[in-house]
Amino acid sequence: MLRTMSLRRAAQCSVAMLALAAGSAACPLSCAAADADLVIYGGTSAGVAAAVQARREGLQVVLIEPSAHLGGLTTGGLGATDIGNKHVIGGLAREFYAAVAEHYRNADAWVHETPEEYQHRGPHFDPAQDAMWTFEPHVAQAIFAEMLAAAGVEPILNERLDRATGVEMHDGRITAITCESGQRYAARTFIDATYEGDLLAAAGVSYHVGREANAAYGETLNGVQPGLNTHRHRFTRPVDPFVAPGDPASGLVWGVQRSAPLPPAGTGDKLVQAYCFRMCTTDVPANRRSWNKPADYDPARYELLLRYFAAGDRDAPWNPVWMPNRKTDTNNNGAFSTDYLGGNWDYPEADYAARERIVADHLSYQQGLMWTLANHPDVPNAVQRTFQRIGLARDEFVATDNWPPQLYVREARRMIGDYVMTEHNCRGREIAADSVGMGAYGMDSHNCQRYVDADGHAQDEGDVQVHGFGPYPISFRAIVPRRAECTNLIVPVCVSSSHIAFGSIRMEPVFMVLGHSAATTAKLAIQHNCPVQDVPYDELAARLRAAGQVLTLDDAIAK
Description:
Blueprint: H1 7-19, E1 35-41, H2 45-56, E2 61-64, H3 91-104, H4 115-120, H5 137-151, E3 167-170, E4 173-178, E5 184-192, H6 198-202, E6 207-209, H7 214-217, E7 242-244, E8 247-252, E9 281-282, E10 288-289, H8 303-310, E11 319-323, E12 327-331, H9 352-375, H10 381-389, E13 391-393, E14 413-415, H11 423-426, E15 435-439, E16 443-445, E17 449-452, E18 458-461, E19 464-466, E20 472-475, E21 489-490, H12 499-505, H13 508-528, H14 537-546, H15 553-558
Parallel strand pairs: 1-2, 1-5, 5-21
Antiparallel strand pairs: 3-4, 4-5, 6-14, 7-8, 9-13, 10-13, 11-12, 15-20, 16-19, 17-18
Helix pairs in contact: 1-5, 2-5, 2-13, 3-5, 3-13, 9-10, 13-14
């Protein structure tokens, strides 16, 4: 179990790691060594878990993050952990959430409220429980910093893979990767822990972007889904989508992408579920800042929202879930909210410059949305007051003007391996016998597009929220590529799965679980001098269980 150091010391570790972003010269030689057992590309929660576990397995590890931000969404605002049955989260992931609980058992952790006040607002904190599932971003940052420091891992930040020519292959193996800086990293095994799947793509591994047709895997919830969502995250009142109301010839208002009829339900396409920033907000006046109007503010972007209010909607279009100290993890909610429908379609395959423009566009959209909700005269007074009462927390994300540095990339590339996780796995109709962790959340995919429906009104499409099934095993074969494509790469984030199954798998604790399992897989592949596909599963499962991983429901019951 992780022994928690003081938050101050952990924060110092975090600051030291961020100092590595200054340039390659700032990185110790041990980090930039030419040879390692394992190179992990992507400092997401999965990458952090993989690095820590790999060191525990005795491997020499290089952890590379292409941005200045470490920890992905777990440290990027997503403090309201999405998971169903929490008993199936084990191993390093459980250690992380146990460290969260240990932190909040300390009276000094409670600055803006007491534990009792927080518990009164929701059953989020119970000192008797071994884990806690809601937390402030800086707490997650400090815990990850502690875990890495204790393992002896110094991550390399701001080091982007040369996606065009930066992957060296020999006999179906990655021998080294080279980043845009010119730094080359050689290793015996590699892990792609990015949200985007950049390393797997550059290595020539098969992948999919977008929604498969239902027919591809015999599913019912994949592809275009115009009639599935009938209650949430959709327009419940008629809203005209045309620039000049009632006149299709005038064009579509901003935010409506499609006027032509949708293809039949279940048809595949290249669309991905919408992205947003998970804001950390507060209602504590001394710690709250008002919403800034972006320099490129365009009121036309919010015309559809204002028309929705004019049609009678009175809901505040967001979902702030309370974290400790009167802060929130704020997510999308409703027909027109923080999700930027259509703004991310090109992101998975875009080059770095285009991605930067897409991220900046998302930031401008969301900043403009929040300012509009707090200030525009056509926003109902009650809604305005909500957004004037709550604003960004001044003591979070200080380096990025209190906005999260990590865009919520809910879905990008998904590897196509020998085993593809599908809706059938989620529903328990098919059970993988070679589990490396368990999924434990409903099939949750956000809207992909906004269109003109048959009645001539604006409507959203793509939202799928199907729950009511239990935890299910995630196949070992879903985190390794096909043998013919690469024999020393492991992929714990962009796993081999259909769009709709990924909507369930894509939760941060599951990524941590799979990152842990990926590291142990790397250890055994090196130990046996074999392709990752040939790692003896029985031995892998035994080592994972010995490290606290939960691979089946029986394991969870035994705990």
